[in-house]
Design a protein that fits this description.
6% of the residues lie in helices and 49% in strands. The chain is mainly beta and 447 residues long. The chain has a five-stranded mixed sheet with strand order 8-4-34-33-32.
Length: 447
């Protein structure tokens, strides 16, 4: 119980802890109007952070993350007038394929070339051929088309990054794993585990010196190279030399991609769990947290450590996801306040609020950007497609069909299937807590 947070009240309360399905449930028998608080004391598939937007155990009369106020102080970028003036027409879209799973949902996605990599809530990683998934079939049996599958760690695979012939995966068991892609067969990939981070050598070299040990609980220490909670997100530097990881332990860590050594750890980077990380080509690192803040980090040339450049505060609840435009000049942040805030670089290189994209009715959980197209997935079970035309945004489509919150998505432009020079084609992959993968195709007129 030493790793649990203690919540106090001005009232003299009697409470009872009850263990149910690997959780402690806190009950106030004398005050039934208080929320029941569920707290995990070891790994499970849905953490207390995720329960903010997945689990409906807020009682009637209390405030849930779903009903938090959106950002009224920031101008909307999707007004009816904007759509009329710019003559933006709804795009053609349809669902090509649905893959139905029964025991676990997909918690992370990555695209690379002709393959789609998926990380599951039951610790499995699978590889799929994209041309099979986009073959205009309404439903496919996933067991008949899966190329390869591996299982590692405990709990969900939270993030995937592909680097050349390697895959880096972030896990709920506090580890990062590295996989070698065996590419000998043209249409088949086999994954072989190369390392678990931190590596044994990294741990051993840090173990002997007391200065490398940090206090993580009242009676427990570990070396600073360890994550001590779920590794929630990974990002790759523009030169492919560094891997950045963030965790619910509130740290940002930097790893060298060549030998997997941990080079730096930023402790207490946020006041609460860190959910997302994004990197721009100019070296800026963006981290989004349940503390409602986005922080900007940078390392000067020749320096060893990153320093805090700025703190971006506009969201009214936890930041769940971040995405950057291809040139790094626009940052998108999605949060449990149902809004997507658009940040743009000013003439001095600082991120300033340009406006907010409104439309989702529940938490925004995932974002994807390609060209001038932004896609957002939400706990309202929809995916929205947004277009940026000269910094004027419009919602072009609402993709409906999932039965539960959309956990992750990724998209890619499909130049080979364009109907003509006046239309761009995209494939969007979305995954929901209903355990489905849906593959969508939409066509954007080049106006």
């Amino acid at each position: 119980m030493s790793n649990m947070s203690i919540y106090t009240s001005p009232y003299p309360l009697l409470f009872i802890y009850i263990e149910i399905s690997n959780h402690w449930v806190l009950i106030f028998p004398n005050y039934p109007f208080l929320n029941i608080r569920k707290m995990s004391y070891h790994q499970n598939y849905c953490s207390e952070y995720e329960s903010q937007y997945y689990e409906p155990f807020t009682q009637q009369g209390s405030t849930s993350m779903h009903s938090q106020p959106s950002l009224r102080s920031i101008p909307s970028l999707t007004t009816q007038t904007d759509q009329q003036e710019n003559r933006v027409h709804p795009i053609q879209h349809h669902c090509i394929t649905t893959l139905k799973f029964h025991n676990s949902y997909i918690s992370s996605l990555a695209l690379c070339g002709k393959f789609l990599y998926t990380g599951f809530s039951d610790r499995e990683i699978r590889v799929w051929q994209r041309d099979i998934l986009t073959s205009e079939q309404s439903q496919l049996d996933p067991e008949n088309i899966a190329d390869t599958a591996v299982i590692a760690g405990e709990g969900a695979v939270k993030s995937l990054v592909v680097l050349a012939d390697k895959i880096f995966s972030a896990h709920q068991d506090h580890k990062i794993r590295v996989w070698q892609i065996d590419n000998h067969e043209t249409n088949y990939q086999k994954l072989l585990q190369l390392a678990t981070l931190p590596t044994l050598a990294d741990r051993a070299t840090k173990l002997l010196l007391p200065k490398n040990h940090i206090q993580i609980r009242r009676h427990k220490k570990c070396t600073w190279v360890h994550h001590v909670d779920t590794v929630s997100s990974l990002a790759l530097s523009s030169d492919n030399s560094l891997i950045y990881s963030v965790s619910w332990d509130r740290t940002l860590k930097i790893w060298r991609a060549s030998d997997f050594k941990c080079l730096e750890s930023v402790r207490d980077a946020h006041d609460d769990a860190i959910n997302a990380v994004a990197l721009s080509d100019d070296g800026h690192v963006y981290t989004g947290s349940a503390d409602k803040k986005i922080k900007v980090w940078k390392k000067q040339h020749g320096e060893k450590k990153h320093f805090l450049v700025a703190t971006l505060e506009k969201h009214k609840s936890g930041v769940n996801t971040l995405a950057l435009s291809s040139d790094g000049s626009v940052l998108y942040s999605g949060a449990s306040d149902r809004s997507i805030v658009v940040w743009e670089k000013d003439e001095y290189g600082n991120m300033e609020v340009a406006g907010v994209l409104k439309g989702h009715t529940k938490s925004v959980l995932c974002l994807g950007v390609t060209n001038d197209i932004l896609c957002s997935g939400s706990a309202d079970a929809t995916v929205r497609v947004w277009k940026d035309v000269d910094r004027i945004y419009s919602c072009l489509a609402v993709l409906e069909g999932h039965g539960s919150p959309v956990k992750c998505l990724t998209l890619a432009s499909d130049h080979s299937s364009n109907h003509s020079g006046n239309t761009s084609s995209y494939h969007l992959y979305s995954c929901s807590l209903d355990c489905d993968i849906k593959v969508w195709q939409f066509f954007e007129p080049n106006l």
